[in-house]
Amino acid sequence: MPTVTIFTPMYNRGYLIERLYRALQRQTVQDFEWVVVNDGSLDDTHERMEDILACKNRAFEILYIHTQNGGKHRAINRGVKKAKGEWFFIVDSDDYPVDNAVEMILAWVKDLPAHFAGVGFSCLKPQGGIIGTTFKGDYLDAFSTERVKYGITGDKKEVWRTALMRQYPFPA
After folding, report:
1. Where are the domains of the chain?
2. Which residues are CB-contacts of 35 (< 8 A; sequence separation ≥ 6)?
3. Domain 4-118+158-167 adopts which CATH fold?
């Protein structure tokens, strides 16, 4: 069973999916599954995902779900229900994680106290550098809603305990 579920909601972003797939193939640690929910795309997302699913040499499992358009929140709820990983990492279709993203996540959550809901980190610009601002020190024990309080701006990514995502789904 994978430790991490990488989840991607898709809507009319077929042209981006191969880049993300290649980034996942480059992960230094393959202890993850990839769950993709196609949220009723009208472009070639389905066909491109079928091509990816036909690839034989994958080091990780892919679960592809094609559904009627219901919004990102419903797509996330659906992905959470199907997730096998202990940790749920939402990677949007226009994102691509650095090659050691899963390795870093596993290192961060290894000794995470049980009362922590997850971990978050800054996103990088393709040309280098952090998007927005970050905080001083190794880590900050805070909710994402406290960003303003700490002067943290920019796009961030979070990895949540899947059990908590199941316990507290987005409103349908």
Report:
1. 4-118+158-167
2. 5, 6, 7, 8, 62, 63, 65, 79, 82, 83
3. Spore Coat Polysaccharide Biosynthesis Protein SpsA; Chain A (3.90.550)
DSSP summary character for residue 146? G
The pair of structure tokens assigned to 38 is 């196609």
Going by pLDDT thresholds of 50, 70 and 90, the confidence category of residue 137 is: low
DSSP state of 37: E
Banded pLDDT at 123 (limits 50, 70, 90): low
Distance CA 77, CA 9 (A): 10
Give yes or no for a contact between 30 and 102, defined as CB atoms under 8 angstroms apart. yes
Q: What is the mean pLDDT of the chain?
A: 90
The pLDDT of residue 140 is: 64
Q: Are 31 and 2 in contact (CB under 8 A)?
A: yes
Q: Are 119 and 53 in contact (CB under 8 A)?
A: no
Residue of 159, 7, 149, 134 lying closest to 78 (CA atoms)? 7
Contact of 41 with 9, CB cutoff 8 Å: no
Most distant pair of Cα atoms in the chain: their distance: 48
